[in-house]
Amino acid sequence: MKEPVKRRYSSPQREAQAVETRRAVLVAARELFEERGYAAVGVGEVATRAGVNLDTVYRSVGRKPQLLLAVIDQILGSSDQVLPAEQRDYVIAIRTATTAEEKLRTYADALGTLMPRLAPLFAALREAASADPECAALDRQIDDRRAANMRLLAADLRTTGQVRPELDDDRVADLIWSTNSSQWHDLVRSRGWTAGEYADALCDLWCRVLLSRSEL
User: Fold this and answer.
1) Helix, strand or coil for residue 143?
2) Which phi and psi angles does 187 have, rounded to 5°?
3) What is the model's pTM?
């Protein structure tokens, strides 16, 4: 005699509660990381601020490096939710822009807004990576993901017909990748640049290096 098939119990209310719990955990982590830095915050403190127990943090998001990655994605998406890259407002705006200069300007302005919040988190991750293999793996994962996204941007720029023909997509992606890093932002910030000056410099640099002279 066959045993009855066990059905998975699915409750919309329970699923909605899980989503809200994850959101509360990520908001708490983001607030604490931005207030005190990654290294100074314990996962237990995230749980306390979110009003949940420690196991709930691990179950809903993961360990501390996973919390940091989710917070970074929150900031990139300008949302309390973790949005895929293609759903972020500035990515949508880049893809709908019609000229290469408009696309680069949109991306530079987005970095001018986001990087002051992201750079300290990236710096803390790099510091932690020197002693924590899990953080080192996350640092590499973020770099690889950013490089892949820059190749998508390079392909999008190519559709305008305004990119220098001698630059292939990999070279375009690498040039953008190397100058949109948090390390480059840290460098210009140490020279006293404002967020607006940083964004203007990025756009000017990219247009001069990447676009055909007839487009300048």
Assistant:
1) helix
2) -65, -50
3) 0.82
Amino acid identity, position 26: L
Q: Residue type for 145, please? A: R
Residue 44 and residue 128: Cα distance in Å, rounded?
18
Non-local (6+) Cβ contacts of 41 within 8 A are 29, 32, 33, 64
In a domain, 58, yes or no: yes
Q: How far apart are CA 75 and CA 90, in angstroms?
A: 12
User: For 48-57, what is each residue's pLDDT tens digit?
Assistant: 999 999 999 9
Asked if 78 and 102 sit in the same domain, the reply is no
**What's the CA gap between 73 and 99, in Å, rounded?**
27
Do 113 and 75 lie in one domain? The reply is no
Q: What are the average pLDDT values for consecutive 10-residue runs of the chain, which has 216 residues?
A: 54 83 91 87 95 94 91 84 85 97 97 90 87 91 92 97 97 95 85 92 97 72
